[in-house]
Write a structure and sequence with these properties.
There is one protein chain. This protein is α/β, with parallel strands linked by helices and 187 residues long. Helix content is 58%, strand content 14%. The chain is built from 9 helices and 5 strands; from the N terminus they run E-H-E-H-H-H-E-H-E-H-H-H-E-H. A 5-stranded parallel sheet has the order 2-3-1-4-5, sandwiched between helices. Helix 1 packs across helix 9, helix 2 packs across helix 3 and helix 4 runs parallel beside helix 5. The longest helix is centred in the middle third of the chain and has 15 residues. The mean pLDDT is 96. It binds BIS(adenosine)-5'-tetraphosphate.
Length: 187
């Protein structure tokens, strides 16, 4: 089973993805975490990604597509996974669709976490105060929200045509949201 968590920055993808992966015993692939680890390790991928991440921009598809390919090819991702943070662009969506189709698989459920913009900003700036993530600055958060609307939100219509998009209210207690997600996907 392949489940995609979609939503604006700060909508709880990382938070819910972790719970869902544990409950369904599926591996979780999180491009944001992989990129942040690469930045910390100072690898060529990290050095390239950092130029974009700190400003709240998407890391270019030219860099991300091979990363996605590599992750989906791993043995642990052959039977299912929770995809957190990708696909985020049309080209990434096409790659995921094509890779799964070649294996006779498909995305089964897409969970769209719905959170009002004021709450997104509040969460990200609250995290900035605690964790000092380099892209949680007010300026970068503004860019991330704009980039989400421009590049990622259009994917909702693309996937909705297949009838696999489930909109879930992403405000309230974390556990309640997780339970609602499981109810919606019937697992
Ligand atoms: P991501 O790591 O994916 O970060 P994000 O979209 O901002 O969501 P995040 O996971 O941080 O927020 P969450 O909702 O979990 O991407 C970061 C950057 O990496 C991107 O800007 C881009 O540069 C790059 N990148 C990653 N993937 C890419 C791709 N495929 N292509 C190109 N570039 C890519 O949590 C936010 C906060 O809310 C947390 O503090 C959490 O504790 C809190 N929270 C969660 N649920 C809550 C609830 N119910 N109530 C209150 N607070 C809650």
């Amino acid at each position: 089973m392949f489940i995609l968590l979609l939503g604006a920055p700060g909508s709880g993808k990382g938070t819910q993805g972790k719970i869902l992966a544990e409950r369904l015993r599926l591996p979780k692939i999180t491009t944001g975490d992989i990129l942040r680890a690469a930045v910390t390790a100072g690898t060529p991928l990290g050095r390239e990604a950092r130029k974009f991440m700190d400003d709240g921009k998407l890391v270019p598809d030219a860099v991300i597509l091979s990363l996605i390919k590599e992750e989906l090819a791993k043995p642990e991702a052959q039977r299912g996974a929770v995809l957190d943070g990708f696909p985020r662009t049309a080209a990434q969506a096409e790659l995921v669709d094509r890779t799964l189709a070649e294996r006779g698989q498909r995305l089964n459920s897409i969970l769209l976490l719905d959170v009002p913009e004021e709450e997104l900003v509040r969460r990200l700036l609250a995290r900035a105060a605690q964790e000092s993530r380099s892209d949680d600055t007010a300026e970068a958060v503004k860019t991330r929200l704009q980039v989400y609307q421009r590049d990622t939100a259009p994917l909702i219509a693309h996937f909705a045509q297949r009838g696999i998009v489930h909109r879930v209210l992403g405000t309230g207690a974390v556990n309640q949201i997780a339970t609602e997600i499981q109810r919606v996907i019937g697992r």
